[in-house]
């Protein structure tokens, strides 16, 4: 089975390859093709993968190419993990937004919109090429903003593109762990959009244990989301929000923390990964060790400003091991081998959430089998969550419309309608700022 990884020179690719090395079952991936626009990045990552596979018999063969069509032909699965504009682009997204006093995070608010406007045209081109060159392939989208990009690609690939994220998985794992349950045996009642969802129940042996958690302040305050959001707020919500909702519920504090930070997250990762790609190619360097150290630092500093604002302290060791690659592998196994499972995924709504139309991509538990991912019916969201989900989905639709039409006016509308952008004039200045620093937004007229 052939797996093509778009963005194959990316830092997280060794996580995916490591998961593949652990899979020894019949029908496993035997060929991995890495695609990237940068030969140097491809060489660096290929070196890490070679060290990972050194002592593994029959490890999946790895090839690398800068030719997209060559990479796609004959693929059974395509992992899309691209970053249009690179980490320098992410740093610019943050800088332009923070100068206007609004959030520049890569998936939330102004930064997410800017990233989406750069990424959607490229993602759509990839979707069209997959439909032409590998029509039977399944696309697993890692690319952020994951929900928005998955929806853009679904207009050309239908249900054969599925978005994944490790945030809901990590949240469910933490809740199950603190309740004394086995995360693998828990049913997580989770619903929303990517980076905008809530756990409303966690069933262990058929019993919803979330009310027990919400009623116990000590237990509720003992894990990351309890520390991040505060016990009182979680009890008021009657649910556990995805960590990214901290940017909404504590927006003023988050913006201030990012403005005062020595470096934004994007600038930190830009510099860190530049050092990684340089260090890993030095003669005599142990590429896998360099990658491991860099990954550990990256995970430990994740959402550091938010945790500092909330007084949440350091991340727990159990949360530093990643996870999205495990979701991807479980999804691939379920489809390729009909190993039926349940995963929280980004898929088309159909009639799952009545507040949204059937084509809207949402993030919910899905039953996965050889025919793909099937969203599980969920009860309606409470009004406060419905309002936020509908508002953000409306913004995503404006981003898609702007990317398709090239309309600058529509792009301004997308920014202005976002709940975290507080002025139409700010929206206009954001579009001016982003088009001035991103050549890829030159299509907006």
Alpha-carbon Rg, integer: 21 Å
Summed over residues and divided by their number, the pLDDT gives a mean of: 94
Put simply, the count of helices is: 20
Low-confidence stretches: none
Order of neighbouring strands in the sheet with most strands = 3-2-1-4-5-6
Identify the overall geometry.
globular
Helix percent band? 40-55%
- Beta-sheet strand percentage? 15-25%
Span of the ends, CA to CA: 44 Å
In words, what does this structure look like?
The protein contains 20 helices and 13 strands. It is of the alpha/beta class and 445 residues long. The strands form 3 sheets. It has a 6-stranded parallel β-sheet with strand order 3-2-1-4-5-6, with helices on both faces. Strands 7, 8, 9 and 10 form a 4-stranded antiparallel β-sheet that branches.
Task: Set out the fold topology.
Blueprint lengths: L1 E5 L6 H9 L9 E5 L3 H14 L8 E5 L2 H5 L4 E4 L5 H14 L9 H25 L4 E4 L4 H12 L3 E3 L3 H12 L8 E7 L2 E9 L2 E2 L1 H5 L2 H4 L3 H6 L1 H7 L2 E2 L4 H4 L1 H10 L4 H16 L6 H14 L3 H7 L13 H14 L3 E8 L12 E9 L2 E4 L7 H23 L2 H10 L6 H14 L8
Parallel strand pairs: 1-2, 1-4, 2-3, 4-5, 5-6
Antiparallel strand pairs: 7-8, 8-9, 8-10, 11-12, 12-13
What's the short story on this structure?
By secondary structure, the protein is α/β, with parallel strands linked by helices. The chain has 20 helices and 13 strands.
């Amino acid at each position: 089975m052939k797996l093509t990884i778009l963005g194959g020179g990316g830092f997280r690719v060794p996580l995916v390859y490591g998961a593949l090395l652990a899979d020894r079952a019949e029908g496993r991936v035997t060929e991995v093709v890495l695609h990237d626009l940068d030969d140097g990045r491809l060489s660096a990552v290929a070196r890490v993968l070679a060290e990972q596979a050194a002592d593994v018999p029959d490890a999946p063969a790895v090839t690398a190419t800068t030719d997209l069509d060559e990479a796609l032909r004959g693929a059974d699965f395509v992992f899309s993990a691209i970053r249009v504009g690179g980490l320098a682009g992410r740093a610019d997204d943050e800088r332009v937004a923070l100068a206007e006093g609004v959030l520049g995070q890569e998936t939330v608010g102004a930064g997410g919109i800017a990233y989406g406007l750069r990424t959607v045209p490229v993602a759509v081109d990839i979707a069209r090429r997959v439909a032409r060159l590998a029509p039977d392939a399944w696309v697993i989208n890692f690319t952020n903003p994951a929900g928005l990009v998955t929806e853009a690609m679904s207009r050309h690939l239908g249900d054969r593109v599925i978005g994944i994220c490790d945030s809901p998985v990590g949240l469910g794992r933490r809740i199950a762990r603190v309740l004394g349950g086995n995360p693998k045996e828990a049913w997580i009642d989770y619903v929303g959009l990517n980076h905008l969802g809530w756990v409303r129940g966690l069933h262990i042996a058929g019993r919803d244990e979330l009310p027990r958690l919400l009623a116990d302040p000590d237990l509720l305050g003992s894990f990351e989301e309890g520390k991040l959001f505060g016990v009182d707020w979680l009890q008021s919500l009657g649910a556990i929000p995805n960590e990214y909702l901290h940017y909404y519920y504590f927006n003023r504090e988050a913006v201030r923390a990012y403005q005062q930070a020595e470096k934004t997250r994007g600038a930190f990762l830009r510099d860190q990964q530049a050092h990684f790609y340089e260090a890993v190619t030095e003669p005599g360097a142990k590429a896998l060790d360099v990658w491991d150290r860099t990954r550990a630092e990256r995970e430990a500093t994740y959402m550091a400003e938010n945790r500092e604002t909330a007084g949440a302290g350091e991340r727990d060791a159990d949360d530093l091991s990643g996870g999205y690659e495990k979701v991807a592998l479980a999804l691939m196994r379920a489809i390729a081998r009909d190993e039926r499972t349940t995963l929280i995924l980004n898929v088309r709504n159909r009639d799952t959430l009545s507040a949204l139309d059937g084509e809207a991509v949402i993030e919910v538990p899905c039953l996965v089998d050889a025919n793909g991912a099937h969203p599980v019916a969920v009860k309606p969201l409470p009004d406060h969550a419905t309002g936020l989900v509908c508002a953000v989905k409306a913004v995503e639709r404006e981003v898609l419309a702007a990317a398709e039409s090239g309309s600058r006016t529509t792009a301004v509308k997308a920014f202005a309608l976002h709940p975290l952008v507080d002025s139409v004039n700010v929206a206009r200045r954001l579009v001016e700022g982003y088009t001035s620093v991103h050549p890829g937004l030159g299509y907006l007229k």
